[in-house]
Amino acid sequence: MFIDTHCHLADPKLADTDAVVEEYLKAGVDTVMTMGCCAQTSEVGFEQSKKYPSVYFASGVHPSDSAGYNNQEKDRVIKIATDKKCVAIGEIGLDYYWKPYDKDTQIKVFIDQIEIANELKLPICVHMRDATQDTLQVLTEHKPMYGGVLHCFSGSVETAKIVLDKGFYISFAGTLTFKNANKALEVGKFVPTDRCLTETDSPFLAPTPYRGTVNSPKNVPIICDFLAKLKGIELTEFAKTVKNNAQTLFPKLKNV
Ligand SMILES: [Zn+2]
Question: pTM score, two decimals?
């Protein structure tokens, strides 16, 4: 009944994919969206989606990999994005946290992939880290026509309000459960239930009490439960709402 809308099954830390999938199915997670960080990891997601009925994928180039973006890389991203299980272009965006970074290249690659999403009528999965101003500017000047989600949202309530007004969804990860998560808690309470998504961003960001270990989609019920309690909603009902939200934003989730 749970959905993980953002994870990295192509990561070597989750290399025993059969075991990872078996574990999350056992934990009640029936739908998982694995992200591309470059053409190669997007293609791994494509292959995994063929092998596992519960796996869907996004195709795209992560801002931290934007230096490797060229016509050939772009063609590979587009080629698999027309697949029936490719639910989005992602993850794309801006990251000024990991240094060194090249702002101009990141912005160019981000805009180019928004255009791909618009041409293919797909939503986008957005990564925004230490780059709020520029990300909002790109999203305003190059509007994603089929919507999107701000994944692992780390912004303020004010920023959340701006992206919600633009029609975006906000996705919550294990960071919400961390001890110092005051800002995230405020945002968690603020975002309307019908605009919330849940994710693990695994293998990163394992939620409390598993912080510091290899994260996996099996932990998404912990995040969903935490957010449901924060909002004072019964877990089953909230999980159902989150699934509906995901199916509204990512129509291809219903297509298979
Ligand atoms: Zn990610």
Answer: 0.96
